[in-house]
């Protein structure tokens, strides 16, 4: 009798009974992987999920970063790398699970080229470099939508110049994605003391070519990518003129206006003319800019947060971490402002959890993958390249990852090396204990209660 | 006050958006919220208990009620619960859950499944 009643309930609800707004509210709370699957429930759902307005709303609700991980085999970095995604939504410890699982990226992803190296990402679009037809190319792709496009080569065809991509940003006003690259004179071609201003090229996603916008008023410091926040890229810089005594060490590049401006930094120690990039790292998380400073003379790492964007007085020294292992390399906070436990990716390959209340740092164990890895913060989204590119003509450049021609050797490679994870390591002479789960071990929720 | 539409609801006699059963579940929520606002754990337990007695399919009706009554916290809570319930489940499960039918052409769906084989890995059992 009861089952009859329930079946009745089923029949009562039809596609039209649930208002679109309600469906949207539910879908906005789904993680990307489920969203990609669930859009095939029916055509209405497919249309909702594919709508650019919906993807923008979904992205806006996901301020915490996930990670894309690339494992590196030390004897040949970039070759035979495996790629995984670690979604932050899986790190929710309310369920008292101890592992956040790593998800392997699809097999077809590896067909984008050989020796793929993750560069940077913006709004769910991944930028990576790869070797295709023996040439190095830069690609932008979205793994959730399965699209990719190859970027054209630098505008400056002079062999003396070396293109380095410096940042990937987005202008909400014009809905354009842009990459900036530095064209630096190869050091072999100039006097040792000659330090010219770097030429800057900008590429608007979808355009036919890069555009030279002139020389930067600053020289970029370090190999790290600029931090994107509020429609601008922020980089650590040094003035070109070494006699310049101003203490500017951060600049912003407005994506829409394509202009460099000095940006106020926190009142950190006086920087000499040749301060080391290892001591300072700029980043953004939860909508705030932060800066980590770790001088060799100091025993701790100071983290400053800019509480009000653009306001120099709002830089606050928020955390002081007396953990010497933090003193090298960049720090990426993943979920600042989302509660007491802040996850940070340190030095590209070490995940830590910092508890703001107890001021304790805990190393987070990553299991099941080769321990040498490179990771970049990444917010998965369904931003379609078709909506991201400017101009109708450029849509022809967008290809589907699924359509990449499969080479038999790649399939064999995937099946042998990549889906049998430990055969590869064993062959390379590394012996790893077999893991039970592939993922990250989260801090023990029970222990946390006693802090 | 959170319940601007409640007064309207009681005034409106021809209301079939919110059945009585749903109203008794949704309306006491704000009072409970205020009482145990500070303690998240208690709130969680209360919410879990509430939902144990409610069938998954009923959740969609609760959402409609919360939406009609303009009650944002309840709407957020119910939507999150539905999202958690359908997360990582197969497409068929989701269809059954909402009582929906696929209106794709037979070939279309297969083609789409192949395209995103990745997202179909690691799906929970129905």
Structural overview:
Chain A: This is F-box domain-containing protein. Chain A: It comes from Quercus rubra. Chain A: Residues 12-57 form the F-box domain. Chain A: InterPro entries: F-box-assoc_dom_typ1, F-box-assoc_interact_dom, F-box-like_dom_sf, F-box_dom, SCF_F-box_component. Chain A: Pfam families: F-box, FBA_1. The complex is a heterodimer of chains A (451) and B (126). Chain A is an alpha+beta fold. Helices cover 15% and strands 35% of the residues of chain A. Chain A has helices spanning 2-12, 20-27, 32-38, 43-50, 52-60, 385-388, 408-418, 421-427, 445-448, and strands at 66-71, 83-86, 99-101, 103-104, 114-122, 125-132, 135-142, 147-150, 161-171, 176-185, 199-204, 211-215, 218-220, 227-229, 232-239, 250-254, 259-262, 280-285, 288-293, 301-306, 315-321, 331-333, 341-346, 350-355, 360-367, 373-378, 399-400, 439-441. In chain A, the strands form 6 sheets. Chain A has a 6-stranded antiparallel beta sheet with strand order 3-28-25-24-23-22, with no helix packed on it. In chain A, strands 5-6-7-8-27 form a 5-stranded antiparallel beta sheet, with no helix packed on it. The longest helix of chain A has 11 residues, at 2-12. Chain B is an all-alpha fold and 126 residues long. Chain B has 2 domains: 1-87, Potassium Channel Kv1.1, Chain A (2-Layer Sandwich), CATH 3.30.710.10; 88-126, no CATH class. Chain B is built from 8 helices and no strands. In chain B, helix 5 runs antiparallel to helix 6 (72-86). The A-B interface holds A 6, 9-15, 17-19, 21-22, 25-31, 33-34, 36-38, 40-43, 94, 101, 103-106, 143, 146, 400, 402 and B 44, 55, 57, 60, 63-64, 67, 75, 79-80, 82-83, 86-91, 94-96, 98-104, 109, 112-123.
